[in-house]
Design a protein that fits this description.
16 strands, alpha/beta, binds pyridoxal-5'-phosphate, 2 domains, Aspartate Aminotransferase, domain 1, 361 residues, globular
């Protein structure tokens, strides 16, 4: 089989060394004669793995000691409900910056549980999609939290500033950007992420929550979504997704081997710069996103002649460049270039784009 580069937005590519390690110990984990999938989450071996994964994640993100790290079910969308249930009462408002389709989805879910207020929306600048930093007025004071999504996976929109929220805790959906660069966790109330973009396999989500925001869940909160119960039981109130947790742990070890998040950020910057410069240097391809807000993880681009889309995708597949079809709401192409995508994958994509333009332009 020729080398394949998988640009899927999620579930996404995992690092080769991680999968090789998982494969090597798949049927005989820690000389137990069993797979990690077959052992109790309450057994000594699994508890050790789980604790090490948490510690490695804490090390990578430099998580302060007054934050809980929770490993939960329900993916990113589960947190769309868990956040309002844990952080707000039905009469409370929650503030939302809507920068794309995922942060919009969070508003729809929150509206079942509290009174969301949209304080900023995706706009345009120079004819391109742009996110302006919202300015809050005094009508927003007293909100329970302020939700935003710094990397919009579908739209390919990102920003590296933090919304100004005063005393209102910031809640960030980092499903597609967590671990791609260093973070100052202390600036956030809650950070959450579904695993299947940049952490590991689907089925797991990670929640990093400041301890004063734990323990106030509404009475009707499903127990599996209650941050306090999860914290008290080391995320084992019920059976966690053990295999995903184990694999996430291997990814964290791999990230440490790579030099941690500063090193990853440099690699991610280089990959994104290479791809955007290929898009910008040609009239055959275009980005609809303002340069200030271009995601470094998910890169949508359009062919000037959309009638060539199908041929582009067919030839890309033949060249081993997989899953480049854009999200159905956006169209065109999208290349997701998370941590696991090596720069060689981006180079191969750029070379393919140039050759495709030469032949079809
Ligand atoms: C993928 C994604 C989600 C949804 O994740 P699920 O695990 O499918 O619920 C939410 N937010 C963002 C930013 C995402 O990329």
């Amino acid at each position: 089989m020729n080398q394949v580069f998988n640009f899927c937005a999620g579930p996404a590519m995992l690092p080769q060394p991680v999968m090789q390690k998982a494969q090597a110990e798949f049927t005989n984990w820690r000389d137990s004669g069993c797979s990690v999938m077959e052992v109790s989450h309450r057994g000594k071996d699994f508890i050790e793995i789980a604790a090490k994964a948490e510690q490695d994640l804490r090390d990578l993100l430099n998580v302060p000691s007054n934050y809980h790290v929770l490993f939960t079910h329900g993916g990113g969308r589960g947190q769309f409900a868990a956040v309002p249930l844990n952080l707000s009462q039905a009469s409370d408002t929650s503030l939302h910056l809507v920068s794309g389709s995922w942060s919009k989805g969070a508003v729809a879910e929150a509206s079942k549980y509290n009174k969301p207020v949209v304080v900023g929306e995706l706009s345009e600048k120079d004819g391109l999609q742009y996110v302006a930093k919202p300015v809050l007025d005094n009508t927003t004071s007293g909100a329970a939290y302020y939700h935003f999504c710094p990397n919009e996976t579908v739209d390919g929109i990102g920003f590296d500033w933090l919304p100004e929220s005063g005393d209102i805790p910031l809640v960030a959906d980092m499903s597609s950007t967590i671990l791609s660069h260093p973070l100052d966790v202390a600036k956030y109330g809650v950070i959450y992420a579904g695993a299947q973009k940049n952490i590991g396999p689907s089925g797991l989500s990670v929640v990093i929550v400041r301890d004063d925001l734990v323990g106030n869940a509404r009475q009707e909160t499903p127990s599996i979504f209650d941050y306090a119960l999860a914290a008290k039981s080391d995320s084992m109130y019920n059976t966690p997704p053990t295999f995903s947790w184990y694999l996430a742990g291997l990814v964290f070890e791999w990230l440490k081997d790579q030099g941690g998040l500063t090193a990853m950020a440099a690699k991610n910057d280089a990959k994104a710069a290479l791809l955007y410069s290929a898009i910008d240097s040609s009239d055959f391809y275009a980005s609809r996103v303002h340069p200030d807000n271009r995601s470094k993880m998910n890169v949508p681009f359009q062919l000037a002649d959309a009638s060539l889309d199908a041929l582009f995708l067919e030839k890309a597949e033949e060249a081993g460049l997989r899953a480049l079809k854009g999200h159905r709401m956006v169209g065109g192409m999208r290349a997701s270039i998370y941590n696991a995508m090596p720069i060689d994958g981006v180079k191969a994509l750029v070379a393919f784009m140039q050759e495709f333009e030469r032949v079809n332009g």
